[in-house]
């Protein structure tokens, strides 16, 4: 049986991914001594790497002349109340070095830099997300012992789950997790050419990069479902995209290309084929909705497979475990798309809805029978 994927293209992608991951990277971490101790320690630890491909320099802003390294791939400044932080960030950017300003004092850091004449781009200031849980913790602490001047006023309740409050934001467990996620997303966006190498070296980059890869591939496969009109012509393209996605996710999580990756690819191809079978069944039941069903399967199937791969690699991979994750993702896609198609078909009457449900049920039963052999 011929697999619905271009093996040569998959192997080429595997070689490219391995090469991209092994690219050397250079990072300078500049620490403002006035930054809260918890954020200093956290960012230093985040950039501690055992990778042989990463060179990390730790430099304290102690009043000496600031000279950025133009050979750096990025710089990270752990910011406190030093008014020179904005100037240091500007000097790094002028040297062509993308610069992240990590802080638990986002409003103060931005205001101080602006007042000193070196405003920091808003996108470069990275701080913990102020969820309701984090707000509850820091606002209670602030009420008993204000951390920074009262000129910023009393803490305000969160709006849209992310607002500024009394600073600094203490790095609780949840706050550390959101800071890592935002730092990782910043690195993935600012260092696109070497982001696999960054993920290999720094664990906090892995999940944000993997999620971005999944989202981009899902959108791409939705477009494939819309554009390919010949029955079955979209499956090889979608499956190749998903295979490339899996290789990038596995590389981001530090997995080398070996026999295990091949077996994981086989499981993913099986999941993709199963989702495509369901799409054919539903398209046959409601032909007028065929384009929508294929796009929905392309998007939701890729999302489900990609997120299953992320959870799999994050939790300690085994091939049997991956097969379970793919099977669970497949079943979710089948249920979701069948429900969507049935709802859309309702406008065409009860007979159309019954046909969709019957076709979906037949597809699921057939797939389970095949997998049980």
Could you describe the 3D structure shown?
By secondary structure, the protein is of the alpha/beta class. The chain folds into two domains: 24-198, Rossmann fold (3-Layer(aba) Sandwich); 203-371, no CATH class. Helices cover 60% and strands 7% of the residues. The chain is built from 13 helices and five strands. It has helices at 7-21, 37-46, 85-94, 106-115, 132-144, 173-190, 195-201, 206-227, 234-252, 259-285, 290-314, 319-345, 350-371; strands at 25-31, 54-60, 74-78, 99-102, 125-126. Strands 2-1-3-4-5 form a five-stranded parallel sheet, with helices on both faces. The longest helix is centred in the last third of the chain and has 27 residues, at 259-285. The protein is globular and about 60 Å long. The two termini are 17 Å apart. 45% of the residues are buried. Residues 144-158, 161-165, 347-361 and 363-373 have low confidence and may be disordered.
Measured between the Cα atoms of the first and last residue, the distance is 17 Å
CATH architecture classification name of the largest domain: 3-Layer(aba) Sandwich
H/E element order: HEHEEHEHEHHHHHHHHH
Any idea of the CATH topology of the largest domain? Rossmann fold
The CATH class designation of the largest domain is Alpha Beta
Low-pLDDT ranges: 144-158, 161-165, 347-361, 363-373
Average residue pLDDT: 74
3D shape: globular
Q: How many domains?
A: 2
Using only CA atoms, what is the Rg?
Answer: 25 Å
Strand content: 5-15%
């Amino acid at each position: 049986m011929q697999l619905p994927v271009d093996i040569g293209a998959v192997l080429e992608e595997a070689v490219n991914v391995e090469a991209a991951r092994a690219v050397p990277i250079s990072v300078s971490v500049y620490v403002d001594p006035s930054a809260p101790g918890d954020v200093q320690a956290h960012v230093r630890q985040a950039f501690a790497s055992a990778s042989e491909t990463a060179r990390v320099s730790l430099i304290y802003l102690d009043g000496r002349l600031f000279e950025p390294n133009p050979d750096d791939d990025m710089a990270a400044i752990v910011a406190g109340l030093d008014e020179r932080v904005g100037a240091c960030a500007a000097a790094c950017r002028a040297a062509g070095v993308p610069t992240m300003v990590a802080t638990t004092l986002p409003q103060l850091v931005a205001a101080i830099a602006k007042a000193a004449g070196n405003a920091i781009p808003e996108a470069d200031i990275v701080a913990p997300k102020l969820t309701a849980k984090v707000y509850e913790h820091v606002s209670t602490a602030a009420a008993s012992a204000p951390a920074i001047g009262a000129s910023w006023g009393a803490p305000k309740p969160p709006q849209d789950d992310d607002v500024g409050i009394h600073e600094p934001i203490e790095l609780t467990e949840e706050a550390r997790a959101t800071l890592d996620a935002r730092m990782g997303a910043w690195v993935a966006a600012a260092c696109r050419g070497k982001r696999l190498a960054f993920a290999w070296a720094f664990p906090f980059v892995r999940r944000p990069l993997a999620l971005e890869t999944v989202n981009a591939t899902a959108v791409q496969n939705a477009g494939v479902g819309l554009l390919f009109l010949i029955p079955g012509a979209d499956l090889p393209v979608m499956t190749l995209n998903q295979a490339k996605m899996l290789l990038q996710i596995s590389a981001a999580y530090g997995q080398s290309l070996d026999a295990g990756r091949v077996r994981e690819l086989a499981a993913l191809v099986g999941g993709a084929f199963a989702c495509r079978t369901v799409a054919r069944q539903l398209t046959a039941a409601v032909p007028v909705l065929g384009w929508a069903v294929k796009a929905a399967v392309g998007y939701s199937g890729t999302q489900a497979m990609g997120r299953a791969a992320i959870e799999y690699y994050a939790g300690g991979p085994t091939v049997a475990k991956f097969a379970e994750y793919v099977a669970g993702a497949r079943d979710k896609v089948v249920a979701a798309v069948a429900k969507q198609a049935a709802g859309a078909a309702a406008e065409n009457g009860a007979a159309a809805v019954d046909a969709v449900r019957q076709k979906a049920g037949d597809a699921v039963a057939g797939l389970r029978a095949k997998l049980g052999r």
